[in-house]
Design a protein that fits this description.
Length: 201
């Protein structure tokens, strides 16, 4: 066995043992308290929510993926996680992203809606800023990282590459989220002070 093979095997064994230890430490009472917390804040949990909460309670980052409107971001909000939209992060631009790094280092955050952001152009150079942010978060920052996306793993790899997918999976445990009805939870809500207009043909 080479030194490199031994390093990889040791790392795999250490991660496996860490996961078993944390899974054993999460009690049903902890899960029950989290279920009550998100229920009080308006999230309707299902049996599929429990593995998400178990990983969350164990201290893991979680990656919530699924179709639009199925409650991915809302679940993390109900858990009290600070949400940073991918577009919001990219608005910092290359010149000011260091401010974001300083604000978020050591904090629990969610990078929301990965795949919906636009690429950033500065000084004529195109740079996918979110790739740099994910890499920086994985390699240089502390703090638990969660994320949400409407993309599946193949689409993430196609857009960002294998390395970014690997870094996301290194920070987060993936879970597919489906609403209790299987349909989008988003509804058109009339703006306050405006009446719905009747349409005539």
């Amino acid at each position: 066995m080479t030194i490199q093979e031994a390093l990889e095997k040791a790392a795999t064994q250490a991660r496996h043992g860490y996961e078993q230890l944390n899974a054993a430490q999460v009690s049903d009472d902890q899960i029950a308290r989290l279920l009550l917390r998100i229920g009080e804040r308006g999230y309707i949990p299902t049996a599929a929510t429990i593995p998400v909460l178990r990983d969350y309670a164990a201290g893991y980052g979680i990656m919530l993926h699924g179709d639009v409107g199925h409650g991915k971001t809302f679940l993390l909000k109900c858990l009290g996680v600070r949400i940073w939209g991918a577009d919001e992060i990219c608005d910092y631009g290359l010149r000011h992203i260091q401010e974001w790094y300083e604000d978020t280092n050591g904090r629990q955050i969610c990078i929301d809606d990965i795949g919906a952001e636009m690429t950033v152009c500065e000084y004529g150079a195109r740079d996918d800023l979110l790739k740099a942010v994910i890499t920086h978060r994985a390699e240089r920052q502390s703090g638990i990282t969660h994320c949400t996306t409407n993309l599946d793993s193949a689409a993430i790899i196609e857009r960002y590459g294998d390395r970014i997918m690997s870094r996301l999976l290194g920070m987060c445990k993936p879970h597919r989220i489906v609403s209790p009805t299987g349909l989008s939870m988003r509804r058109a809500v009339p703006m306050r002070g405006h009446r719905a207009r009747a349409t005539t043909r």
